[in-house]
Amino acid sequence: MKDDERKLQSESSGNDWVSGQSDESGYTEPDETIIADESADSPYTDSLIDNFTAGGILRAARERQELSIDAVSSALMLNHRVIECLERTNQPPGYDMSRTRIAAKSYAKYLGVPADAVLADFPTDEQPRLATAVPRSSVSETSRGVASRYALPTAVMACVVVLGAAIAFLIRPGEFASSRSTPSVAERVVAVNTAQESLFARSPLDAAQSDDLNLSLVSLRPAWVEVRGPDGTIFRSRTMARGEVYYPRVGAGWTITVKDGTAFEWRVDDRAVGNLAETAIPVYSASIDEAAALAAQQTEPTLAAASNSRPSR
Q: Does the predicted model carry a pTM greater than 0.85?
């Protein structure tokens, strides 16, 4: 029994000595419960995504040092919006990636944050793309996708138009061929005569028959006449005297306009072939080439009869 009492006394005296030493040194064991509560109530904790981005690191470091954005902006001489964009891990407006990296590095050094951790979320085009919490689209310029956004629809529309034109040509090739073979107004100036001729001739003018004709216009009485070329050039515009003769150019697309169609007569080799009009009406832009063709048709039987009546040698 005495041995047991001695052991108990020695243990109690040892505990008293340890407690006395701890009181003298002032050391107390940390209260884990209190620390956990303080970390839960800390205003500097951010979301999980912000803790993995450069912007979250910069923002948390600034708030822990109790610095405002205005104070950082004044110290670094950066715009207020630039600081906000860096804390959101976005490229500031008007900044290229090189300038953005310089601003982010300066901000990190000012806060005492490792610059490599911040610059990892602002990679240059030469650096490999690292898988960070922030997507690449948030730190790249949004204007790069504008051109590609409209390039594909434009190309599709162009292909549709070309394909539609090709299909229309394959379905109706005859209409395209006929439209191309139709002479233009500049190529064939026809008569605008309400008495006999149509506005557009059905067959092209045979220039071989009319080029050799000695066609002339004779004034039967004093009357006004105007002769124009296909480009509007005026070759004659005056009153011709009675018996006056004018030799127009055949095959050049010239036209003739008179106030009285019965006052002028067409002649071939001094043989009358007909007046400009059967009645005393104005004639506008009558084709000289068509008049020569009609005169050639009328004079062919006469020329044939004259050649047959000649004696053979």
A: no
